[in-house]
Amino acid sequence: MKTPIILLSIALLLSSYSFAQTKPDTIKTTELKELSLDYKKPKIIRKADRVEFNVENTILSSSNAWEIVKRSPNVQSSADQLSIRGSQSIIVTINDKRVSLTGDELKALLQSMNGTDIKSVEVITNPPAKYDASGSAVINIKIKANKTAGYKGSVTTAYEQGIYARKNVGISQYYKSGKFSLSGSYNFGSGVYYNKINEVINYPEQQQQWENILSRKNKRDAEHTYRFNTDYTIDSLNTLSIGIDGYISKNNHALYNVPTYIFTSDKELQSYFVTKNNRLTPNSNINYNIQYEHLFSSKEKLTASSTYTDYRYETTQDVKTDYFVTDTQSQRFFTDNEQHIRIFTAQMDYSGAHQWATLESGLKYSRVKAENNLDFSRDVDGTLINDPLLSNLFRYDETVLAGYISAGKDWKTWTVKTGLRGELTSIDGNSVNPAQRNKQQYFNLFPTLFIQNKLSENHQLSFSYGRRITRPAYNYLNPSKSYFSPNSYLIGDVELKPALSDQLSISYSYKSKYGAELYYIHEKNPTSQLSIQDNENNILIQKVTNIPGSTYFGLTLSASVDLAPWWSVNLQGGPSLQSSNFIFDDGSNLKKHIWGADGNADFQFTLSKKSGLTADVNFMFNTSHLQGPAVAGSSSNLSLGFKKKLFADKAEITLSLQDIYRGQKFKVSSYYKDQSNYYTYYGDTQRFRLSFKYNFGKSTIKGREAKQKTEEQKRL
C-alpha cells in the first residue's frame, strides 16, 4: 500500500510545481487528411441540475465510451463497477434513453462505442423530474447528431489475462442515406471469471471457529452483446425510430470448490468437509423499443415511446458435501431455479422553450410481471427426490403510473429549475411456499429544486434538492431459501418496502476547473443484506430486509487542469460520514457510523504527438465504509495504460495494466451482538489487456441511438 501512495504523492508534488509554471491554455491542431481538428482538453460545464463533461474533439475522444465515463466528474470505478457518492444504484442512459444492461454486460456495450462519436457525458447526481424517481444518480452519454450521409464502422479485438484469460471481438457499423439511417454493434466474448473468498465464522456456543475457502471459477464460452437501431425521417418535423438491444449467454458453467475447516477454541483441527457446487447459469436480456418524435418548432417537441423487455435467468446447481474426520454421511442436493421477467412501458414527453419559462411534462405507464420457480431435490440413496418444503413458486406483478411537470428560467446571473413527479405504484407478490402474499398500493411525490448563481465570470454557486425512491430488486422479494451449501442460504422478503431518500447539495466552482461540493443524503427504509449467524445450528444466513434509516454526509473536491501541453490531470475526492440504524428481530437496536474518504487521480500524457503515442495513469482508493451493519475495509487500484495510433490514425493498439499491486482485495467484518464473522474477497482484478481497433469508411457519420430503457430494468 505504501508504494502507490508514495508514487501518487510524487505525482501530486510534480503536478503542483508544473501548475505553477504552466502557461495559459493553448489550442493544438492536428491534421486528419483534409480535415483540421482542434484538439483541446475536456471542458467541464456546471449547469443548474447537472455537470456536463464535454469531450468532443479532445484527446480523450480517441478512447471508448467506457473509458470516458470512468473519467467523468464525480464518477468512480472499482472492479469494473461504477459508483457515485458511494452508491452503485446508477442509471446509465444514451441520449436520455436508458440502458438496461449492468456489470460486465454494460462494460462490453460501452467499450464498443467509439469516443469520437460522443459529444459529452452528463453526470446528474440529483436527477430532475423528467427522469424516473428510482436510482441515486444518472450518467447520460450524449451522441453527436448524424448529419452526413455515408457508411463507416470499426472492428475491435481484445485479449485479457489475469489468473485466467478472456477474449473479445466486436464490430460496429453506421449507415445513412437520405431519410434512412441504420446503426448497429455486436460483440462476442468468452473467458473465465474468477473470485476467491476466505471466510471465518466464530460460533461461541460450540466454541468453534469455522474457516472456509470459496474458489469460484465461472467459464463463459459465448457471450453475445448487441445493439441495432434504425431511424426514418418522415419529414422535417417527424421521425420514427425502432431498435433492439440485448445480451445472451447460454453456456455459463461455474464450479465452486469450498473446503471448510472446523477448529476448537485452542486452534486444533476438529473436523473438515468439502462442498462442491456445479452450476449452470444460462441467461438472456432482450429489449425492444420504438419511438416517435414530432417537432412543433426548433424549441418545442413531443415524444412518444414504448419498450418491451424479456429477461430470463436460470440457475441449476448440483451441490455435494463430503465430511472427513467425523462419521457424518455425505449430503447432496440439486436445485433448478428459473426466473422470467417481462417489462412493458409506454410514455409521452413534452418539452418546450417559451419566453416565460422552459417547460417539461410527461406521463408514463409501466407493467412488470415476474415469475420465479424453484425446484429443490435431495439425494436419497442415490436418487434425487423433490422436497416440497424447500421448493417454491413466486409470482410478482407491479404497475407504476407516473406523471411529471417541471419549469426552468434563466436570468442574467440566476438560473432556477423546479419540478414535481408523482408515481402511483400497485404491487402483488404471491409466494406458494412459504404461503405469503403482499398486495399494496402507494403514492409518492418527488419534488426537485435547482438554483444556480453566477457570482462573477469565474465564480459559480449552486444548490440542489431532490427526493428519490429505490424499489427492491425482484429476486429480493422472493421469500424462499436459496441454498449455497448445507450451512448457508439467502432468503428474501415479500414485504420489503421501497426506500425513500432526500438529497441536498451545495457546490462551488472556479473557472469550471476547480470545484467543491457539500452533500447530504438521508434514506428511509433502505434495503440491506444482513449476515446472520444461527449459532445453534451452525448456519450462516444472508437475510434481505429493510433497516430504519441511513445517512451519508460528505465533501467532494475536484480539479481538472492542463499542467503542460502534454500533461492533463483530473483529481477528485474527499471525506465522508456514513451512519446506519438497525433493529433486529428481538427488538434490540444497533447504531453504527464511520468516517471515510475516497479519491481518484487520473493523469493523461501525450508521449509523442507525431506518432500518436499516449499514456494514462490512474489511482483510486476507498477507506473503510459501512456495508449494512458490516464494515468493508479499504481498497485501492493503480492502473497504467498505453495507446498507439497506427495506419494514418485509422487504427490503434492499447495495452493496459489493471490493479497492479492487487489493492482491490478487501475485507468485510461483522462484529455485533452474537455475530462474529468476516471474509476477504478478491475478484481477479490484477490483469493486463491488449486490444486493437481498426476504423473504416467515412469519419463523419453517427445515427441516433439507444431507444428508451426503463427504471424497472435496473432491478433485474
UniProtKB/TrEMBL annotation:
<keyword id="KW-0472">Membrane</keyword>
<dbReference type="Pfam" id="PF14905">
    <property type="entry name" value="OMP_b-brl_3"/>
</dbReference>
<dbReference type="InterPro" id="IPR036942">
    <property type="entry name" value="Beta-barrel_TonB_sf"/>
</dbReference>
<protein>
    <submittedName>
        <fullName>Outer membrane protein beta-barrel family protein</fullName>
    </submittedName>
</protein>
<dbReference type="GO" id="GO:0009279">
    <property type="term" value="C:cell outer membrane"/>
</dbReference>
<dbReference type="InterPro" id="IPR041700">
    <property type="entry name" value="OMP_b-brl_3"/>
</dbReference>
<keyword id="KW-0732">Signal</keyword>
<feature type="signal peptide">
    <location>
        <begin position="1"/>
        <end position="20"/>
    </location>
</feature>
<keyword id="KW-0998">Cell outer membrane</keyword>
<feature type="domain" description="Outer membrane protein beta-barrel">
    <location>
        <begin position="297"/>
        <end position="694"/>
    </location>
</feature>
